[in-house]
Amino acid sequence: MKWSLIIEIAKALMLARRKQTMIAAIGVMFSITMFVALLGFMNGLNSMLDGLVLNRTPHIRFYNEIQPNPNQPIDQSEEFGNSLNIIRSIKPSTSRLSIYNSESIIRTLEQDKRVLGVSPKISAQVFFNVGTIDLTGIVNGIEVEKEAELFAFTDYVTTGDYADLNQTNTIILGKGAADRMLADIGDVIQVTTAQGNQVQLKVVGYFQSGLGDFDNVNSYASITTVQKMLGEPASYITDIQVKLHDLNLAPTMAKELEGIFQIDADDIQTVNAQFETGTNIRTMISYAVGITLLVVSGFGIYNILNMMIYEKLDTIAILKAIGFGSGDVKRIFITIALTIGFVGGAFGLLFGFLAGLGIDQIPFETEALPTIKTFPVDYNPKYYIIGGTFSLITTYFAGFFPARKASAVDPVEIIRGK
Amino acid sequence: MKNQSSIVLEAKNIDKFFYNPTETQVLKQVSFQVARGEFISVVGKSGCGKSTLLYILSTMDTDYKGQISLDGELISGKSSDYLSKLRNEKIGFVFQFHYLLNEFSVLENVMIPGLKLGKYSRSELEQRAMEKLRIFDMQDHARKKANQLSGGQKQRVAIARALINDPLLIMGDEPTGNLDKKNSDIVYHKFKELARDFGQTMLIVTHDPEFAAGTDRTIEMEDGRVIRQ
Q: If we measure between CA atoms, which residue out of A212, A211, A234, A232 comes closest to residue A124?
């Protein structure tokens, strides 16, 4: 078929009803704009909120869990080994928290191609001695450079320089903890470990994660500082944090390595399942709203095309009389609908992008989120592709039914009717 | 072979019923032939079925009994898409009220059936369309929008459009019925010219006795029957 002719006729019909055509296109434009802006904004917020936790969470964490020994002596005895033994009031064994042979584990992990990076960590329970009061807290011993590289540590150090942590006997306090201790930068605070060692540490910065509870308790020091505090050797490590190239491999890898290293391993999916659920639901809601908008604009197009067909019955009849088939007439009206959808959609994507840029400029400062200055917007091309595709699909269906009606017009009836 | 060359259109035993509100037979056993080059008028009182017959012959109305052959080819029962193509290529139309597409210029109106047929390129068609317009002295109005013309002018352009694909047959449904005396005369003379100078086969429904008198042959209808041909 000669598409050029069909396009020409479609164009002439649209120009004849310029205002209505424009209104229909603006309807599509508006809904696509909203769709793109809404999804961009929603997902910007989503990824920011997820990032709060997920950025700082290792994909796999290796540690020794305090638990009762699974191999109780009675199970090992020849006499009762195969019977059902019930032991009451089991207590956890005094297993050590430090990871045995940690250096070789780290070396092995670093050679694994799936692994992006490995960072060792020590968690130490301490008391901060403030005057006559002791505040409980946790000091995390970290390898500063690795922590910054893998877990965006720098983003959360709001005051002070994180690199100062490399000096021994320095600490970066959680903002909440610092506020309670009234500790300023440069102050020296006293820390008592669970073993009873007392250490003086110099405050070099504040740390603010956005999760208040976390900041009230957690503080950071270099790994050597913490080892010294605890009086442990340089090989003492309680956690090994692993970041992978592909987050989705975490559960299977955790299981696999758990067996190889004879150590407990947690993967990020298990630990943070609720975040994914929240994200999914928010995304679903924004899609639902966006698609509703598009469907509404689809009805607008449907209406306008229907009206156009009633007004242009004569034209349709003449076209049919001079040899245009039903298929041609249908194609003409589908072309009109798709043109409206395409033009409206293209402008919608453009304005959606601009709306995104606009939202990106709105100041959004909150105590809890130190790194965020304006509303976050996600410019993922995925939303633009979905929006564009959907504008064409809805307009196609909005045009399909009127077009079918137009193609069914009986020219004899119209021509005789007068 | 002889049939194909001389008989353009043949209708055999055409019956047509209307079912609304009650079953009425509007055409009864209508049979006739149109030979190449003939200028035929169909006359009869209002309601005798002459327009109905025309629309059946035009292939637009397919709900009838009987057989129609166009250019020696049986077209009864063919698909509507096929009939559309046939109509585009072999039949030119002139209506009483429905002249032109108002969205297009006069020239484009004439060209559209040609563009649809796709036998000639756009520039060739433009030239052909101008030629056809010249026959009707409408070449000066070629660039005007269709709705800027008077009724008589529109009808002349409509006839030019009917000619663009060099159709086998031109059909008219009271083409002068809606025009004043002067314009009606002009259109009438143009039809005569077409018959005389170009040997164009034409089948025109009319109730204007003067018009009918000027044609080669008159088919007279009454109550759905051909009473004289």
A: A232
